Amino acid sequence: AVVSTQSTGESFIQAARVDLVGIIDRNNHEDFEARRPLIITTFDVDFEVNKKRTNYVRNRLLKAASEYKDKVAFTMGGLNMTHYYAPDDRYNDTGVVMTVIDEEGWEYTVPKEIEFTFDNLKQVVEDVISGKIKGKPYREEEAPVQKKRVKRVVSSTFKDYVLNPDVHSLIEFYSPYCGHCKALIPLYNELASRAREEKGLVIAKMDATANSLPRPFNSRGFPTIYFVPKGKSVKPIKFEGDRTIEGFIEFMQKHTKEELTFVEPEEKYLKKKGEEAPAASGTCGGETAANAAGGEGQCSAGKQEL
């Protein structure tokens, strides 16, 4: 926070102006990422040690934010956020890096050769508004043919299945190397079977080791599951609760005003007496998984997480 010795009125005005931009950090990044499209400037922010540069960047952001506040959001963050948003070959610790998060949550890093000036910032904003600048996944699989009730999503189809404003969606981010994810498969399939008559709900999953995740989704461990209520894709809700049929249904119902329809599962999912499976609990972290199957990979989303 900026400490000011100005009068109360002047301090109020200054605070309002700072709120137009705000400082993004590890604790509030999801709130900022929900305001899309978003332009993030990252550098060695310090209002005391690096006062000249910090005010130089801030003043130009405030000017742009005043001009475009209904179209684009702006924020600035320190070097720790530079390392998070900018790919390793696009940042340096002495420059100002501009990163765009587009309306769908994908990132675009402005080439570091483009100096941070108000004119260049304004051009970036205009290119974002016109659609000339768009983010994109840094990795993705080919879109699969859908053969099962659980929809297999990849980065290029994420918008169609998960961000569709006309349906609710439950999305699981998994790793093929994660034992907890494998244990969840039969239960998740049964959940999709029970939801087969609910046209307003999509049950989906995505291999987060092979596909990028759009902001503000993230997967620090596997499985990570989000519920996206209809029309609220900018604020997905991370699943917390028991990984049981009842737990998933109760969680989804809690976060929507609509009554969702669930029916008895298809015969192949019916369990005989005494065969009830235990809840699929536990989360797999970022350890390497060169397992018995002979595969190599990491049980993580790959990119640095906060």
What would your notes on this structure say?
The structure is a single chain. This protein has eight helices and ten strands. With about 300 residues, the chain is α/β, with parallel strands linked by helices. The chain has a five-stranded mixed beta sheet, sandwiched between helices. A five-stranded mixed beta sheet has the order 6-8-7-9-10, with helices on one face. Residues about 1-20 and about 285-305 have low confidence and may be disordered.
| Largest sheet descriptor | 5 strands, mixed
The number of distinct β-strands equals: 10
* Rounded radius of gyration (Å): 22 Å
- Shape annotation: elongated
The number of helical runs is: 8
State the secondary-structure class: alpha/beta
Q: Which regions contain 5 or more consecutive residues with pLDDT less than 50?
A: 1-18, 286-306
- The level of helicity is 25-40%
Averaged pLDDT, please? 83
